[in-house]
Specification:
Largest sheet: none
Number of helices: 10
Length: 229
Amino acid sequence: MKGNIVNALAIIIGSLVGMIAGRKISKELQDFLMGIQGVCVLFLGIQMGLQGQSSLILILSVIFGSAIGFMLQIEHRLNQFGEKLEKKFIKQKEGLSLSKGFIGASLLYCVGSMAIIGALQAGLLHQYDTLYAKSLLDGIISAVLVPALGPGVILASISVFIYQGSITLFSSFLEPLLTDIIMADLTGVGGILIMFIGLNLSGIKKIPIGNLLPAIVLPVILHMVGFHL
């Protein structure tokens, strides 16, 4: 759970910084920092991707996983879910800055693939690099969001901890079923997805990451049916 604790603390610290000096952060600096973070996340994804044992399993998992996600329209459904919550809680309560900041920031931090991937890796592989990278991103974003959405942004640390912590705890029950090779390929596929997130953040290429989420479980299925190359 330490990765989720760090993530929650980063949001708190970033929010406090935003309350003190957030209005002084220019749009140009925000965009510049986001691009730099995107390249750093891309580098993290490359490192993780190289840990995979079977290149063919990694490639098949990403290709078939993205095809499944595309047919299920996961990215579109995630966006619709976020929009519905935003309309219900934010637009109807514009006068309540605490509620507006809490709901808006929670949507941004939780309804995304990096939260799911990072929590799964923490539970299954005891690897926290993704959550640490997300913590850095969320901390900086929090400093920017506070002037726009209000002090309620700091309360999003609670929803992030509960949401990601629940995924981490649930996934840990699968650990006894996973061999070292399967876990290595899970790391590899996760790394490829992190690379796509880095491309998005840096503005190099916009890819619907939500549609790639089914790829996370495919290495387990392929190994269990005896696919080894």
